[in-house]
Amino acid sequence: KINNSNTEPYVILEIGVAVLVLVFLFYFLITRGNPPKDVLFFVFAEFSFTCVIDLTSALEYDGIISGFMEFYQKTGEPYLGTAYAIMMCYWDGIAHFIMYLVMISRITDRKAYRTLGLFWAGSLCANMSVFIAGIVAGKYGSEIRPAFWLNFLFLLMPVWGAVTLFTKPKDRPLIGGYNAQHAQSMKLIWRPLDLILVLLLLAAMAFTILRGLVALDSPLEACSFYLKHYEPYLKDPVGYPRVMMLHLFFYGLPLLGAFVYGLLKPGCTWMSDWTLFFAGAVIQCQWAHIGGSLHSRTTAPFRIPNEAFWCVLTANLLYAATPVLVAMRVQSNPLFFLQIHPFPGQTVNCLSVDS
Question: Per the UniProt record, which residue ranges are transmembrane (predicted)?
Answer without folding.
Answer: 12-30, 39-59, 79-104, 116-136, 148-167, 188-210, 244-264, 307-328
